[in-house]
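User: Good morning. I'm curious how iron/sulfur cluster would be positioned relative to this chain. Could you predict the structure with it bound?
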Amino acid sequence: MIKDLQQKILKIKSENDACILAHSYMPEEICEVADFTGDSFALSVKAKSAPQSTIVMCGVRFMAEVVKMLSPDKRVYLANARAGCPMAEQFSAETVAAIKREHPDYAVVAYINTTAELKTVADVCVTSSSAVKICRALPQKNILFIPDINLGTYVKNQLPEKNFILLEGGCPTHSNVTRAAALAAKEAHPDALLLVHPECRPEVTALADYVGSTAGIMEFAEKSDKRGFIIGTENAIVQHLQFRCPDKDFYPLSVDLVCNNMKATTLYDILHCLEGRGGEQITMDESLRLKAVKSIDKMIEFGG
Ligand code: 13P
Ligand code: SF4
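Assistant: Good morning! Here's the predicted structure, ligand included:
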């Protein structure tokens, strides 16, 4: 059944000159039909160079918006129109612009998990894998980091030479993980390394053996000569790693580490989107796009 659906998707994808991008939180069966999988940084770079005229994003809305910003002449679809990232919508551009007016000497650094509107008031975007590198490289000493307080705190702790203002935003999935849960997982698997996404709270990242993006966590586990790993990010990563490294053992840090928005997309959504009877075509006012894309271009320039 899954194989049949995948075959149909692959056929219509090539007939329609479409490229499928899948964030690493997508399940295995979706990654199998994707042209590219990866973390949010890798996908934004791929979006810029994909030769196809149509892009289908299997992820959440801000990711499809980034694709549209970078490829305005392409038809860009979000495979499931209901898949949004709650963190991306936690602050309005007006709120951030007002804070910026009070602190004119601060560079506004926006996590890529933000709406296009919010990106218009950012000087530069960052992803979880590029945040420390980019904040370090910024000429400004003062940084207003939006919207994730946990990622912001993680970056701030790495860069004592900079001043940070943080807002109280965050990921409802990752910020739910408690220190008690992390301690319990370590006690249950004493020989396993704890690998954690920086969207988790500081008291959780403080216990980690490695902190990094979804791609960073996967690379670390694959290359490590250790055998056991507790995975402190969305549980799809546990599944992917177990597929890739059958001789190693992967344990979820918490069974609650599930992002319902990332889980919303199915193979049927992709098929219906390619057939023109599902998904949502992303449209964007050109003046909004031009203002918002500057912060993404800057990120790619800094990120290498
Ligand atoms: P990555 O930047 O690690 O892909 O993370 C995106 C995300 O939404 C994490 O919750
Ligand atoms: Fe947004 Fe969190 Fe889901 Fe990532 S895991 S898409 S940050 S809600």
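The first strand starts at residue 18 and ends at 23. The radius of gyration is 19 Å.
Let me know if you'd like a different ligand tried.
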